[in-house]
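Re: the 296-residue chain
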Amino acid sequence: MIIAFSSLTPAGATFMDWSWHWLKGEDQHWNKKYGWSDLTKNPLSKNNSHSHKKNHPCSIEEWKKFIDSAMAENADVSFYPVLLSKNDNLSEYVKQINLLVEQGIEVVVIKQTKEFPYGPERTDKIHANDLSYYFNIYPELKKSHSRRKIREIVSLRMRFDRVEWLKKIEHQFKGLDNKVIVVTDDEWVDQTEQSMLEIFQRTGGKISDDRLEHWRVVANKWRKIYKKTETFYTETMPQIVDKIISGEDMDLSQFDFGFTQESLLMALTLTRHGKRIVLPDDHFPMSTKELHRFLK
């Protein structure tokens, strides 16, 4: 069997991939680059589950090359197919996912229903990938633009674009083949075990009883890591914005801020309070009291 675990944003597909192998009772798994290797007992890292060496083809051409190699293995193989550009290719994504089904490949898609995560969050190179990510989804951005200019443009677009994108997902996903197993981001985080049970039931697999206890421990730790992102956006960011408005001081260096967080903070200040943060240069102050000085 070949099975694909996919999502349009980092939403836990790597952990789902590892869970499938672990719960099947496997001790090894196949990777196109590394060949057969031991399956780790703990896939978790600081921000995600990327200690698990998944197959991760990032273009349609790479999907095809991977499938050719996987079929030659004549074994149970998984992969995490993605498309790099995410704003204007939803119909292509649905088309290619359906083509996987036509080839006899099992497919599970994690459907995003929340605005976050934004940008390349929950990846291994969060801030290193920030600007290249936005150059990819906003072709009008120029590398000659200053960081201040790019941040201003992104802050004015990111929340509106994400809301519109979620609407497009809802519409385009209606075209997915009925055989595609769709799990929402909420379901995957809040009903992780039930989601895995459904995947095994629909793909005809069987969970090894002796693997469940350890998996539940790891799954609980994974959920805590994932929930940190949700808490940051639903609780911490609104608190930061309110302190910027009031002028109350808070040291932002305690948070892992990068370009995405800077831009989103500017966006939230505008959408929540109708105020813009207008900075004189590329520098982004790591103090709410200092940022208060630049409100317009």
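Residues 209-246 form the longest helix (38 residues).
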